[in-house]
Amino acid sequence: MAASADIFPEVILLVGVETFRDRRRVLQMVSRVPRSQRSTKDSYQIQGSFDEIEQLFLELATLERNTWRDFALEQKKLQMGAEPNNTETTEVEHVDIDDWVMNFIEQKCCDGLEKVQGSNVSLHRSHTKKQIHFLPQKSTPMIHTQFARQRFLTFYQKIATELQVKNFSIGQYQLKQLENDFPDLLFSRTSNKNTVTVTGSYTSIERLREAMRGYKAKGDRSQEHRTNTKVKLDMKAHGEETCPICMDTCSNRKTLSVCKHSFCRECVEKAFQIKPACPVCGVLYGALRGNQPENGSMSITTDSTPLPGYGGYGTITIRYLVPSGVQGDEHPNPGQRYEGVARTAYLPDSPEGREVLKLLKRAFSQRLTFTIGRSSTTGRSNVVTWNDIHHKTSRSGGPSCYGYPDQEYLGRVREELKVKGIS
């Protein structure tokens, strides 16, 4: 379980004091954690390291509860026609998953997955591949299984919100080279032998896209160099530098000023037409602008209702509106109509939340918030979709429902914005 602290450095626990018989003992336990604050009359919000919160949770689990609360709950169930709860549940609720996301996690994030499940709980996929079940080892306390479920849910959601799936036309020889050059991407063959489905983060797929453009620009000469091992060895022996985009000898070499990576001038200039960033390390050279339709609007309102996990702060509500229209030259299908979108998102009205709002405003003004493409939820093409800057579209429900509480969200969205040159 100790490895979980590496994944979740900060954890928040909500404690309802009235659920315990020994109120004084509960208050003593809560007061040991420095960052504890009363959120309501009978509840406390405690923030601390994973180890601190886990220890407190396990200690609280040993205390005797107020039986009147259990009795009232059973009476309510009986009034609704349900059977009384005579035995404690021995199963932790499963988690619904997307098959393609889990395939990526199992093949590319196996170390993180092992840390998430710990040493006392096993994760098993259902026969439909749509659910994850949590099976504790013999004599493992149920609370450990519940912790494993919550760790997995946060881990899964963090990865799922960063993934993209794209199709590329890639030959067999080229595929082997790309699999070596992009180990963080998952390449899968389709029924079309020259079409490959690629799964990975926005940054990695953009690097792949730029590399593919380099391959295409160089044509057969580039492929000959990639598949001819002897030529490559000769190049290294003579100290010749290889362009990371086309994998050929640098032609009319251009070295970038900040990161000092070198490319063929033609390759890097074409890459910069897509995104003004180094294809190797991602360092930006100029402001990035997207292809978000120009007729959209972004409006901001605030209210005093706190979001879960942000007691004491109000809520910032962001409303986006992008009307339908006709695609331009910068879009996938120029001249065709695209379907617009209206979206609502939420931020805590805290100092960090207001900083993130400023960054989101910059992203919208640089046309980076939305793009035109294929909807990952409906499967329809020529629609306005999110452009890899993830938003909380629900006030509550936690990460699995794209809502709060989610203490890592503000940090994650800052990283997504940083990738696009906004920080």
Automatic annotation (TrEMBL):
Lineage, uppermost ranks: Eukaryota, Metazoa, Chordata, Craniata, Vertebrata
Entry's localization field: Cytoplasm
Q: Which UniProt keywords apply?
A: Cytoplasm, Metal-binding, Transferase, Zinc, Zinc-finger
User: TM segments?
Assistant: none
Query: Which reactions is this enzyme annotated as catalysing?
Result: S-ubiquitinyl-[E2 ubiquitin-conjugating enzyme]-L-cysteine + [acceptor protein]-L-lysine = [E2 ubiquitin-conjugating enzyme]-L-cysteine + N(6)-ubiquitinyl-[acceptor protein]-L-lysine
Q: In terms of domain of life, where is this protein from?
A: Eukaryota
Q: Which PANTHER family match?
A: DELTEX-RELATED
- What protein family is recorded? Belongs to the Deltex family.
Q: What is this protein called?
A: E3 ubiquitin-protein ligase
- What would be the name of the gene that encodes this protein? si:dkey-3h3.3
Species the sequence originates in: Denticeps clupeoides (denticle herring)
